[in-house]
Amino acid sequence: MSEQKAIEGVIEGPGTEGVTEGVSEEREQVGGVVAGREQVAGAAGEREQTDGVVAEREQADGVVAGREQVGGAAVGVGQELVPPASRAARASRPLRGALRWAAALAVFAVFGASTAYGVTRLERTDVPGLGTVSDGRWDYPELVRPPLPEGRPAPFASSNKATDHYADLRELVLPAPRGATADKTLAVGHGWVKTGTFLDEYPLKDDRELLGGVFRDRGLRHIAARGWTTPDGTRTRIYLLQFDTGLVAGEVQQEEFAGYDRAPRTLRGAPSTELDGRFPDTWQLPNVTHYAYDEPRPYGAEQVRQAYLLAGDVIGLVVQSRKGGAHAVPFQQTVALQEELLG
Question: Do residues 182 and 238 make contact, with C-beta atoms less than 8 angstroms apart?
């Protein structure tokens, strides 16, 4: 800039008109030099800034690289780098933890598999909560139908138009469960009971007389019966009444022993009845129908449950009574098994 001022002073002095043009040219050259120097200086400043940014980036990359070298542990001011032995120890800790968890899972898997296998190998009564005794069912012996006389069809065979039971009716009565005591009033040697024994189940004289007349008029052939008392005090009585044909038995059933919402006849100890809506419909066999009734609360000294069955030429009556309440499960079980024998 001092050179430019000196030139301007020369230009402005006296006697310099002859050299004005030359001085102007030199001024333009000097201005270009100055402009060039300013551009160079600006470029140099920008380069210095660029170099500074590059240097900062290189420093940052170095810090990142240093952090990666120390295994992800950031090293700041005043911190020391982790020695190689410590880095190896820290790196091995997650691996040892993963191995411990894997071993524990393997042990639990083996233990669970062995337990599941052991449960499947146990009997139902050996597994707590799954035993048959806990749901109230009784231990009945295996059911076996009696043999048919030679040349006689089964009750519901297509060739048996009358749906008659040709097998011994006494053998079709459900046997007592294990541990039960036989009812002496029904445990007769020949297995048959008189009509009066069956009619004694009805306390009303009118019912006894009416049913007695119906049995005579409709040709009742005979009555087989069995009774028992279980250790919990439940008393069971089963009667099977056989008529000449299934048609006659069906008419007697519908006229005398079938009620829509309650039993049509009052049994001894059950002044009121209602339809047992809790009886499983899935237990209904194709060729056997049942009408189950319960005594609602409040009942007297005993609760009485009853069910009338119809299977071909046989009408059945199952009665269970117990002081304090007759349980539903053994009653339903008894009715269902009796139906299987008749079907």
Answer: no
Q: What is the DSSP string of 37-79?
A: HHHHHHHHHHHHHHHHHHHHHHHHHHHHHHHHHTTT----TTP
CB count within 10 Å of CB 191 equals 17
Q: What DSSP state is assigned to residue 15?
A: T
Query: Using one digit for the tens of pLDDT, what is the confidence trace for 269-317?
Result: 999 999 988 877 776 788 999 999 999 988 888 999 999 999 999 999 9
Token pair 């028992």 in the structure block, residue = 228
Q: Find out whether 289 and 310 touch, Cβ atoms under 8 Å.
A: yes
Angle (deg, nearest 10), helices 2-12 and 20-69 = 170
In tens, the pLDDT along 228-256 reads 999 999 999 999 999 999 999 999 999 99
Across 243-301, the runs of DSSP E, i.e. the strands, are 274-275, 289-294
Provide the CB-side half-sphere exposure for 194 (13 A, CA): 4
91-108: average pLDDT: 55
> What letter would DSSP give residue 24?
H
Checking 87-93 for CB contacts under 8 A at 24+ apart, the result is: none
Tokens 């539903």 locate to: 328
pTM for the model stands at 0.62
Its sign, for the CA torsion 103, 106, 112, 113, is negative
Sign of CA dihedral 67, 73, 74, 79: negative
Q: Which helix (H) or strand (E) holds 104?
A: helix 84-121
Q: Three-class SS of residue 289?
A: strand
